[in-house]
């Protein structure tokens, strides 16, 4: 369950940081589980449906390249349907959810076929409205990233998905790798909460470190997605913006701590404060001796840490104008039982 009072759902985005090696992919699934993430996520493409021929045939000379052309590079990193089923089975054995971003409509068809727990819509497809509509109509939960989009576009996204599927959330995201702090724009989370109050809002981050993601949870993010890697020095453009195992584990711990700290929003003295209150809490005392029958005025009163505990300082003005029913010595606590007509019925 996502949203409401449920814990933040933490997605470890493996993406294509597995280097095209299914054994590394399995290690990363295990790592995500061991670090406390809720879901391990990949990226699934049917390359001829995602790219046109010219895009696949263009030379790719980047230091991160796994082939002479972009198509060769992407094919090296793309797992087959059989391999995805193998990874899915492994994730079930490990005990962690597994899904993928469907990077084209045919990839979504395959992910639907293998019954992933939810569809992830990558930022590059968020304004692809035919894709969004077809995906939403399948009725499976959706997590939609919003990198590179405007609020106007996100309103259209919300309306398009909502028409066919009530079960989705939107993630604030800035599509830069790695992401500089000044470009994160966490306040968009708050704006999304105002614009779309009936769905959970989350955060997909590509920044360095964990602080910003933890802050997103403090702002109410109910989903956090972060890229993960086994080694930031590996070949691949996403590794630098990814978390290594120790960082992912620390992020999970920090998020769970922040969730505990958020509380109920009800301000009251808590049981854990009783010791401090008993030791340092103050009471109303007599600034000077007050004889029995005297009408109390404010200049007769002081506030101190006192034994026994007397009237609470916030009620001092309720004492003014009332008579004392017994002699009160200088510096003595003024207790409820020595003030005429003082009691709960007088308090507001």
UniProtKB/TrEMBL annotation:
Entry-linked PROSITE patterns: AFP_LIKE
Gene3D superfamilies reported for this sequence: Aldolase class I, Antifreeze-like/N-acetylneuraminic acid synthase C-terminal domain
Source organism, top-level taxon: Eukaryota
InterPro entries: AFP_Neu5c_C_sf, Aldolase_TIM, PseI-like, PseI/NeuA/B-like_N, SAF, SAF_AFP_Neu5Ac, SAF_PseI/NeuA/NeuB
UniProt-listed CDD domains: SAF_NeuB_like
Keyword annotations from UniProtKB, A to Z: Transferase
One protein family per Pfam: SAF
Signal peptide stretch: none
Segments forming domain AFP-like: 283-342
EC number(s) per entry: 2.5.1.57
Reaction catalysed by this enzyme: aldehydo-N-acetyl-D-mannosamine 6-phosphate + phosphoenolpyruvate + H2O = N-acetylneuraminate 9-phosphate + phosphate
GO biological process terms on file: carbohydrate biosynthetic process; carbohydrate derivative biosynthetic process; N-acetylneuraminate metabolic process
Record-linked SUPFAM superfamilies: AFP III-like domain, Aldolase
Any one GO molecular-function label of the UniProt entry: N-acylneuraminate-9-phosphate synthase activity
Keyword Translocase attributed: no
Presence of keyword S-adenosyl-L-methionine: no
Protein name in the entry: N-acetylneuraminate-9-phosphate synthase
Species whose genome carries this gene: Megalops atlanticus (Tarpon)
Source organism phylogeny: Eukaryota, Metazoa, Chordata, Craniata, Vertebrata
């Amino acid at each position: 369950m996502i949203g409401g009072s449920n814990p933040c759902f933490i997605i470890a985005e493996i993406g294509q940081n597995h280097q095209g090696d299914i054994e590394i992919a399995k290690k990363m699934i295990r790592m995500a589980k061991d670090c406390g993430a809720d879901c391990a996520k990949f990226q699934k493409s049917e390359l001829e449906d995602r790219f046109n021929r010219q895009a696949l045939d263009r030379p790719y000379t980047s230091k991160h390249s796994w082939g002479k052309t972009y198509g060769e590079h992407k094919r090296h990193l793309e797992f087959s349907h059989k391999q995805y089923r193998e990874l899915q089975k492994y994730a079930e054995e490990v005990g962690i959810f597994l899904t993928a971003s469907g990077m084209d409509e045919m990839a979504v068809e395959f992910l639907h076929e293998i019954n992933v727990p939810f569809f992830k819509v990558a930022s590059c497809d968020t304004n692809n409205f035919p894709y969004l509509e077809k995906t939403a109509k399948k009725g499976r939960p959706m997590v939609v990233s919003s990198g590179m989009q405007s609020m106007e576009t996100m309103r259209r996204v919300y309306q398009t998905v909502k028409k066919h599927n009530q079960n989705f959330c939107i993630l604030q995201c800035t599509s830069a790798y790695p992401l500089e702090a000044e470009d994160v724009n966490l306040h968009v989370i708050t704006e999304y909460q105002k614009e779309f109050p009936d769905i959970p809002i989350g955060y997909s981050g590509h920044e360095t470190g964990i602080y910003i993601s933890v802050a997103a949870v403090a702002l109410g993010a109910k989903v956090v997605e972060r890229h993960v890697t086994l080694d930031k020095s590996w070949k691949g453009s996403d590794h630098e913006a990814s978390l290594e195992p120790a960082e992912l584990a620390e992020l999970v711990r920090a998020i769970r701590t922040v969730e505990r700290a958020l509380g109920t929003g009800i301000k009251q003295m808590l049981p854990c404060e009783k010791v401090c209150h008993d030791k340092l809490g103050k009471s109303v005392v007599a600034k000077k001796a007050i004889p029995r029958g005297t009408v109390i005025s404010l200049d007769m009163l002081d506030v101190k840490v006192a034994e026994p505990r007397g009237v609470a300082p916030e009620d001092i003005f309720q004492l003014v104008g009332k008579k004392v029913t017994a002699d009160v010595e200088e510096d003595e606590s003024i207790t409820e039982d020595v003030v005429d007509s003082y009691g709960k019925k007088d308090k507001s």
